Amino acid sequence: MFERAASAENEPDEMNFIKKHASELAADGVERPAARLFSNPPGDYGSMVNEVVSSGDWKESESLGETWKGRNVFSYGRNEGNEVRSGTARPVVLDKLLSTTERVVQEIDSVEYGLTDIQEYYANTGALKKAAENRKPLDSTTGQKKKVPLSIIEAFGGGSFEDSSARLPVRDVEDVLRLEYRSKLLNPKWRDTMIDQGSGGAYEISQRMTAIVGWAATADVDNFVFDEAAERYALDEETAKKLQKSNPEAFKNVVRRLLEAAGRGMWETDDETIEKLRDLYSDADDLVEQVSF
User: Fold this and answer.
1) Which 3-state string (H, E, C) describes the chain?
2) I want to staple 126 with a disulfide (CB 3.0 to 4.6 A). Which of 104, 166, 218, 227 is the partner?
3) With 80 as the cut, is the pLDDT of residue 263 above it?
4) Which pLDDT tens digit goes with each residue over 157-171?
5) Each residue of 197-221: pLDDT tens digit?
């Protein structure tokens, strides 16, 4: 399909951007300029962005976009690869596509799993957005790279693009994140239900705290999310005790991610809160060491 679009003779470039960009790449001598289906290396899986975020072993958020790009340079489709492998690395084509990306669109087709439920959303969609932004010029008003909007289409509602009265909702990622954090992570009823599940529930809370850092690095997370997460899970003495009892490692990670967010400039809070969190982290670390022995 993409090859046919790139070779359409009767369509001007302004009506066929696949043809436009493929022609530009072809003029530079790039092979298979119409390649559009990119993914991980053959036989492998994952962008590795969530692994990097989990380890905390990264400096600038831009590096997460480059991690995603490095893991997704393989083009797939007809005549790609050989008898041994099914994909072909085409980093030049992907780089061109990222540089011309004006908007990223993610469809969610399940009411059960949202953006904050699965690590892969920020590790792929969020990191793709960051990779595209890395290739944008500086915005003269902010002095930073121009933002690439991320739109979320919730396709599980049974809407339609054809019927204007029942169109599928399309929302900015920031609005979807706010809604999900308020309805789940910051919802006291959700918190208490997770805590009642013991170690597994504490682990679920811990994973979502890591994901907040991932989304804050690749998109934008409101300050109130970190404020309320700190109040509900770390600074609330009763909740903290329950988490420490059921899963000390999970509680340690909750506090660690809050401190990390503050250290990376994702969360603005006061010095008193930081000191409390540091004390909690020190105590949690001691408890984990005791459990390990």
Assistant:
1) CHHHHHCCCCCCHHHCHHHHHHHHHHHCCCCCCCCCCEECCCCCCCCCHHHHHHHCCCCCCHHHHHHHHHHCCEECCCCCCCCCCCCEECHHHHHHHHHCCCCEEEEECCCCCCCCCCHHHHHHHHHHHHHHHHCCCECCCCCCECCCCEEEEEHHHCCCCCCHHHCCCEEEHHHHHHHHHHHCCCCHHHHHHHHHCCHHHHHHHHHHHHHHHHHHHHCCCCHHHHHHHHHHHHCCHHHHHHHHHHCHHHHHHHHHHHHHHHHCCCCCCCHHHHHHHHHHHHHHHHHHHHHHC
2) 218
3) yes
4) 665 556 655 678 899
5) 999 999 999 999 999 999 999 999 9
Q: What crossing angle do the helices spanning 271-292 and 237-246 adopt, rounded to 10°? A: 20
Q: Give me the helix-helix angle, 91-99 and 127-134, nearest 10°.
A: 80
For residue 143, the model assigns a pLDDT of 85
Contact by Cβ (8 Å): 286, 239: no
For tokens 């957005």, name the residue: 129
Res. 48: pLDDT tops 70: yes
